[in-house]
Design a protein that fits this description.
The complex is a heterodimer of chains A (307) and B (407). In chain A, helix 1 (2-32) crosses helix 9, helix 2 crosses helix 8 (192-218) and helix 9 (225-240) packs parallel to helix 11 (279-293). In chain A, a hairpin with a 2-residue loop joins strand 2 (136-139) and strand 3 (142-145). Chain A starts with a helix and ends in a 14-residue tail after the last helix. Helix content of chain A is 73%, strand content 4%. With 307 residues, chain A is mainly α. Chain A is built from 11 helices and 4 strands. The longest helix of chain A is centred in the first third of the chain and has 31 residues, at 2-32. Chain B has 12 helices and 16 strands. Helix content of chain B is 41%, strand content 21%. Chain B is globular. Chain B has helices spanning 2-19, 54-74, 96-108, 120-133, 162-176, 190-205, 224-232, 244-256, 272-278, 300-311, 319-336, 341-349, and strands at residues 38-47, 77-78, 81-91, 113-116, 137-139, 155-157, 181-186, 209-215, 237-241, 262-265, 286-289, 353-355, 358-360, 372-379, 382-390, 393-396. The termini of chain B are far apart. Chain B has 407 residues and is an alpha/beta fold. In chain B, helix 3 packs parallel to helix 4, helix 5 (162-176) packs across helix 6 and helix 11 (319-336) crosses helix 12. Classes of the chains: A mainly alpha (307), B alpha/beta (407). Chain A binds chain B through residues 2-3, 6-7, 10-11, 14, 122-125, 127, 130, 133-134, 136, 143, 145, 218-220, 222, 228, 259-261, 263-265, 267, 272, 275-277, 279, and chain B through 50-52, 54-55, 188, 213-217, 219-222, 224-226, 228-229, 231-232, 245, 248-249, 252, 256-258, 276-277, 279-280.
Chain lengths: 307, 407
């Protein structure tokens, strides 16, 4: 039974990371109707910037929390700038174009980001200097590190904060209005361009945080890590209901748990025919099942009314 | 209207410009130019030069380069003409499909011999292409037995194969480390799975209990789920068949999950890069390599110094084998008195050469005769040889058994 608890904990931590990345996908889809394939690579850039700053400052003798905070700030700054710039340059001109055009552009931006990262940092795995030594916590037979706990709690805090922002603040109200009907929102005095930029700003900032978490959790980063992560986060967003912020959070956590449990038990369930190297298959099987059985996702889809 | 024309013209220019770029320029053909004086011979090197295993691939290419430089400096003469070797280094990205493309490229460039590939998963498909062209192929690091068992006359290797490495590792684990419950993980590649299979078979024969057999991929970095499952089976040893970019996070995650078992692997993890990536979790990890400890190789110390002086970095894993592969080719060319691939091939099979790694001779399949194995352990952040196994018999290298008792 304690393995089950351990797998659950692993899954929740993994799921928190998926949830944070999925938020970026879902917010952009809700407002623009665009699947921003480049988002996974923005997370990757955040991760690599964190690594670069951490490696540069590791030898400087600054205390570990300071290095970490500086790295996080640098990553957030780079990701946010990138996200807003990409929206301006690649997506805004295509606002009135048929849906396929911005989709292909997004794929193009994704490839551009990947290979720019490869040019800057090379293609090999980059390791995180050991800044924090995680301490073990034993919880009912399962073992987790304080790092895992922080990741989970921080992700929950960010998600709660975002939900509050959308529900209770002016900016959130403007986002919800734009999501419902951008043209009418514009008639009501909302600067739609501004709201869309703000959405990308938020999504990229949260993505940067996710990148920092990935790097802290696995201790490694490389130029191609955003691809799989982005694909799975997108799956999570669809699972929860694309366009639905709470759905993205639920979908992310659920996908993490499903993947972790599948990876752990699939060997036993199939009598050794399918090993745990099929765990990616499981994640995408979930995507296929959701799209076939309940396309609007677990919590229902929410997109703009586009005439 | 006008803007659209400018943009499409710009786009068209970009497309045309990017089409014209070739990845590597074709090898210069100087064969006819100075016929009376120099004989230009091309040696191909195929290994992963980019990607997570690039440090090993570049290490091999550097060894080959060093061999070519030394051979050129020695002024060898074949049939009255001075031999000038040229390196054509290709990147196979550790990818079996890319490896066949690279092999075809090297064959078309008319190389006289190939040092490659590194991954068994790359060497095996590529070997068919070299065999069809009759070009001798010496692998500096592929250990899967299938590589030399395909019936090709052109496959050779300068390392022991996994039919020796797996069992030796298993006997070490059961005999010396007294492991009773063993969990085995592999990375689903030809090398990793092959090594894990031979390890598992011998461990079972040695009456150990295999409590778990798990698989991952060579791109994965999250092993928490697999390790958690294994933790529930309470093994005292975990064996991983795979390469260091996966082994390092695996070792770290083992520690994070509080798994007290020892961690052991094959030659794929025995690199300085593993220690760098795994940090403190590397301590106490053990690995086997198909070869002697580098400082115990007959030419080892000088080679390491030469390598350091030229490339300003440590030898990772198989650079000495890359170097010796070039030397074996040159030696074969000298004895054949020619650089024709079929004549060189015949002489390579009859090699009796004293290389950096020790005495080199091939059996009828192309495997190395007298292939020793060494078991290493990480002690104080460095790989330290624990035991050398010479063709079946076991001899302690230098008494360094404290690593095995560490965890």
């Amino acid at each position: 039974m304690d393995i089950f608890l351990q797998q659950l904990i692993n899954g929740l931590v993994l799921g928190s990371i998926y949830a944070l990345v999925a938020l970026g996908y879902t917010m952009v889809y809700g407002i623009l109707g665009l699947i921003n394939f480049a988002h996974g690579d923005i997370v990757m850039i955040g991760a690599l910037v964190t690594l670069a700053v951490a490696q540069a400052l590791a030898a400087s003798g600054l205390p570990a929390p300071v290095v970490l905070i500086l790295a996080m700030l640098a990553a957030t700054f780079v990701c946010v700038t990138l996200g807003v710039t990409i929206e301006r340059v690649a997506y805004r001109p295509l606002r009135r174009a048929p849906r396929l055009a911005p989709l292909i552009t997004a794929i193009g931006v994704s490839i551009l980001l990947q290979y720019s990262a490869a040019l800057i940092w090379g293609k090999q795995y980059i390791s995180m200097p050991a800044l924090i030594t995680p301490t073990q916590i034993v919880l009912g037979g399962a073992q987790l590190t304080d790092l895992q706990a922080y990741i989970f709690l921080l992700a929950c805090a960010v998600m709660a904060g975002l939900l509050w922002l959308i529900k209770a603040s002016r900016a959130g109200r403007a986002m919800r209005a734009t999501e419902q009907n951008p043209e009418v929102a514009g008639l009501m005095g909302i600067d739609v361009n501004h709201v869309i930029s703000y959405t990308f700003f938020l999504g990229s900032a949260i993505g940067a945080l996710a990148g920092v978490m990935v790097v802290l959790y696995y201790g490694l980063g490389h130029y191609f890590m955003g691809f799989m992560l982005g694909l799975k986060a997108f799956t999570a967003a669809v699972l929860g209901g694309i366009g639905n912020v709470a759905g993205a959070m639920l979908g992310g956590l659920l996908l993490g748990v499903i993947e972790s449990l599948a990876s752990g038990y699939i060997g036993d369930l199939t009598g050794g025919v399918f090993g745990s190297n099929y765990r990616d298959v499981f994640a995408f099987l979930v995507l296929v099942l959701v799209l076939v059985l309940r396309p609007s996702g677990l919590m229902g889809q929410r997109t703009a009314d586009r005439a | 209207m006008y803007r659209r024309h400018v943009l499409s013209a710009l786009a068209l220019t970009l497309v045309v410009a990017s089409c014209g770029k070739e990845s590597t320029p074709p090898a210069p053909k100087t064969e006819g130019a100075k016929e009376a004086e120099t004989l230009v011979v091309k040696i191909g090197s195929a290994s992963p030069l980019t990607g997570p295993q690039a440090h090993i691939g570049i290490d091999i290419r550097n060894g080959v380069q060093l061999g070519i430089d030394d051979a050129n400096a020695a002024g060898v003469e074949i049939g009255g003409r001075k031999l000038k070797l040229e390196l054509i280094a290709e990147d196979d990205e550790a990818n079996p499909t890319k490896a066949t493309t690279v092999a075809q490229k090297l064959v078309d460039a008319k190389v006289s011999g190939v040092v490659g590939h590194f991954n068994s998963g790359a060497s095996i498909p590529a070997s068919k292409i070299y065999a069809d062209a009759g070009i001798p192929q010496i692998s500096p690091g592929s250990t899967n037995p299938k590589y030399t068992q395909q019936g090709f006359k052109t496959t050779f290797r300068l390392v022991a194969n996994d039919d020796q490495q797996g069992p030796a590792l298993a006997r070490f684990a059961v005999g010396k480390l007294h492991a009773k419950n063993i969990a085995v993980i592999d990375d689903s590649t030809a090398y990793g799975q092959g090594l894990a299979d031979t390890f598992e078979a011998t461990a079972k024969a040695e009456k150990a209990n295999i409590v778990a057999r798990e698989h991952t991929t060579d791109k994965d970095t999250d092993f928490k789920a697999i390790l958690t499952k294994i933790k529930g089976q309470k093994p005292d040893l975990i064996m991983f068949g795979g390469i260091d970019p996966q082994a390092a996070p695996m070792a770290k995650q083992m520690e994070e999950l509080g798994i007290k078992a020892k961690f052991i692997g094959g030659d794929g993890i025995q690199t300085p890069n593993f220690i760098q990536l795994a940090g403190k979790s590397a301590e106490g990890v053990m690995a086997s390599i198909p070869g002697l400890p580098k400082d115990q190789m007959p030419g080892g110390k000088q080679f390491m110094e030469k390598y350091k002086a030229k490339f300003n970095t440590e030898v990772q894993l198989f650079a000495p084998m890359g170097y010796d592969a070039v030397m074996v080719f040159v030696d074969a060319m000298k004895r054949a008195g020619s650089t024709e691939p079929d004549k060189v091939l015949a002489e390579v099979a009859r090699t009796q050469y004293q290389g950096v790694i020790g005495p080199i001779a091939f059996d009828d399949k192309g495997d190395l005769k007298n292939s020793p194995l060494t078991i290493y352990g990480v002690k104080d952040g460095k790989w330290v040889p624990l035991e050398t196994i010479v063709s079946g018999a076991t001899a302690a290298a230098t008494p360094q058994t404290s690593v095995a008792d560490k965890k």
